[in-house]
Amino acid sequence: MKPQRESGAVQARGYYYEKPEEGAIRILTYNIRNCIGMDGKTDFDRVADVIKAINPHVVALQEVDSVTRRMDGADVLRILAEKTGMYYAYGPAISFQGGKYGNAVLSVEKPVASSYIPLPGRQERRSLLMVEFEDYVLYCTHLNNRYPGDRHGSVKIIDYEARDAEKPVFLAGDINDTPGTYTLELLTANWQQLSGNDYTFRSDRPDRCIDYIFGLIHDDFNYRVLQQVVVNEPVASDHLPVFVDVVIE
Prior knowledge:
6-stranded mixed sheet; alpha+beta; globular
């Protein structure tokens, strides 16, 4: 069942984005750091307000705990789903402190199916969450931040998973590498970069772009980007939210 959206001032963050034009999909990627802000406070309402103010159709979230001790048993994704009134899917990467830690997707539309697979991570296992909707598929991931080889290997696995795609596939998440690197070279061989290269980390003093949204290159469809935005949200997480409005053609 779809959670009931809580009321609240979506403009509380100081910004508000109208819904995209008819036929466009708004895709948001956001590493939320378990809703722990740059002020050190855990604030689920604050992150939910960010999401509501952006008005996305679908959201790729990274660094999401499920009932871990460090979050006092809170199911972070379920809380955000209730506060935004969106459907949700979860893809754990590791077992951690009595619960799980990984990636998640929120969506206005009810998913058709969801699954996840492991990705390389020498100091911490990573994962790819794959959520299918009626007209497209969203992949959500958070790649290894220490070992380039793990990032490169992850891209090859992601490419393999998308090899037989019959629908448009979007890939969104914290790639943990910057424009011009081999990771991005590998990605853009099979994926069109839909988001820009504006800095996304860290949120209070951004100095690099590591969060992206891509579309799988395919003979049967193309992507037309109407808008690409990095939201100036310097408190709610250590990453900035990134969204695009895209039309599938």
